[in-house]
Structure formats: structure tokens, C-alpha cells
Amino acid sequence: MANGRTRNRIKQKVKSHIPKDWLTDVRILYRMLIETFKGINQAGLINVAIVTTMAAILTIFGALFRSSISMQRIVNELGGTLQISAYLAPNADAKTVIDRVKTVEHVKSIKFITKEEALKNLKNEIDVPDIENPLPDTLHIKVDMVDNMDEVILAVKAIKGIENTGYAKEWVKKFQTLNRVSHTVTLLVVIFACLLTITIINNTIQLVIQSRKEEIEIMRLMGVSNWYIKFPLVLQGAIYGFLGAVIAIFPINVVQNYLYGVHKFFMIPSPILAQPVVILSVLFVGVAFSAAGSLMSMKKHLKV
Q1: What is the pLDDT of residue 14?
Q2: How far is CA 254 from CA 63, 245, 247, 261, 273, in A?
Q3: Per-residue DSSP letters for the chain?
Q4: pLDDT average per 10 residues of sequence, the chain (304 residues)
Q5: What's residue 112's pLDDT?
Q6: Predicted local confidence at residue 247, as pLDDT
């Protein structure tokens, strides 16, 4: 054990006295790239199967991620049209109550309807006999996001001067459920895509290691550094992920065009940065998790 530590110290001391030449680094990098493409070439037709499988996985991930963003935007916008009706007590000061409601977090807007206006609107809709006005002054409160509706209702009910509240409870629940389902499905797909990506690359790199076992052993005996052996395999996995992600962008763009139509139908603008965010996420998942799969395979099958 002590001899091993001594050898490592001597090796590090020798390395520190070796003059560094950037041309040498470039040549080493060039050789690593050659080794990478040699590994890809040795995989043969397996490359096509790997890249197309990666593209399919990343397409599903990207399409659901992009749909989830649009779904959340539509749910929030439609949920924002829902409003809370707060009915004021007969002797309540409307201005004081409105000022207090404005301080409640997540309140987007407030519209005050006097009991005279409310009765007039009711008479326009149905035939009402001339009786004493039974309707209260009302506040129509809009919330920024449907998920915050329950929180705002509780805060509004606690305000002095508000006698009762009402809102479309069933619609709020439906919007909230839709939002949760969208997020859950997207999260599960992300986890599934990442695990499948790592598994596929892991198996591929294992085959490459087995096919180059003797060559790698010779490099080890020659004193080649571990990263000189590892880096081409990591890069090979990353290239598979990158190519799969690039191919996946085309069907994801088709989904984007379809979602534009959905936004147009609901007259809700599409999120501006949604597509760039999705594309960058697909590229990141493809490259990062493919490289991670390569590292896991090396740790298991390559003792360097």
C-alpha cells in the first residue's frame, strides 16, 4: 500500500516537471476523437438502432413536455376567468373592504357591483316584479392562478364586512385536477426517458468494451492514462444522445405547430420561450444521460 502511494507521488512529481505543450494536448485530443469514431464504426448497424431508439424516446419526452407547458398555460388562463363572488354585509363600507381584499396575495383584479346594478342586470335577464331590492353589494374577484383559488377564498372569507362568498367550485376542481395530471405524466415520462436512455447506452458501451477488450488491455500495459481510454467511450455515448435529440426536434416541431392551433382556438397566446426551452431540455437529456450511461457501463465493465 505504501509502495503504491510512493509510486503515485513520484509519478505526479515527474509529470509536474514535464514541459506542457499545447500542440501535444491538441494531438491527444485528436487521438481521442479518432478512438471515439473508431468505436462508433465498430458498432456498425447497431448505431442506427441506437440513434433511432434514442430519437423515439426523446420525441415522446419532448412532445409531452411541450404539451404540458401549453396545458398549464391554458389551464391558468381559463382558470383566471373564473371569479369569486364576495357578498358584502348590509352595513359594510365597500371602499374599506375593497382595500383589504387588494392586500390578499394572488388577487388579480376586483370589480365592484352595487346592489342596484345587480338588480338591473337581473331584470335584463329575467322578469322580476317591483319589490324591495334583496341583492347585496358584490365584489367579483379574479385570481392569478386557479391553483391559488382556495387560498384566496379562505383569506377573503376572513375579511370583516364580507358576509358570504361563492364560486364555481366544480370547475375549479376540474382545472386543478387537469393541471396535476399534466405535471405528473410529464414527470413520469422524464424519469422513464432518462432510465431508458441510460440503459440503452450502458448496453451499447458494454458491447464496445467487449469488442475492444484486447486493444484496451494493450493501452493499459503501455501506461496510457485512464481518461485516454474512458473519454472516447463517454463521448461516443454523448454523440448517440445528441444525434437522437437532433432527430427528435423535427417531430417535436410538428407538435408545436399543432399546439399553436389549440392556443388559437382558445384565443390564448402560446408561451414565447416554450419551444426553445423544450429543445434545450431534449438536447440536455439526450447528451447528459447518454454520457452518464457510458460512465456507468465503464464503472461496471472496464476496470481502469
Answers
A1: 43
A2: 9, 15, 12, 11, 16
A3: -HHHHHHHHHHHHHHHHSPP-HHHHHHHHHHHHHHHHHHHHHHTTHHHHHHHHHHHHHHHHHHHHHHHHHHHHHHHHHHHH-EEEEEEPTT--HHHHHHHHHTSTTEEEEEEE-HHHHHHHHHHHS---S----PPPEEEEEES-GGGHHHHHHHHHTSTTEEEEE--HHHHHHHHHHHHHHHHHHHHHHHHHHHHHHHHHHHHHHHHHHHTHHHHHHHHHTT--HHHHHHHHHHHHHHHHHHHHHHHHHHHHHHHHHHHHHHHHHT-PPPTTHHHHHHHHHHHHHHHHHHHHHHHHHHHH---
A4: 55 49 66 74 75 87 86 74 81 85 86 79 65 77 80 86 77 73 79 78 72 69 71 83 92 90 83 89 88 77 58
A5: 85
A6: 94
